[in-house]
Structure of Large ribosomal subunit protein bL21:
Amino acid sequence: MSSNVVYAIVKAGGRQEKVSVGSVVVVNRLDGEVGDTVELEPVLLVDGEKITSAADGISAKVTAEIVREEKGPKISIVKYKNKTGYRKRQGHRQKLTRLKVVGIK
């Protein structure tokens, strides 16, 4: 592994994602317009041989640009009760935001 690898683990939308400069990440819906920049909260930062966690105090900022808004896959929700004639169908598509990481400073 090269010693100049820089990446971060960030918390976004209730999940943690591994990001580096130039990577594209899909997270739960964030406020903002296409082209806006967003700061993500780093949990872990790896800069070559140096590893810094949130408990140690990370001074770095991870900035990302909103590429577009999109929707996740369709999920079918079906409720059924035997012998009563009760049937209910519902669908859901989660709203998502696609981000491109532009800097780790």
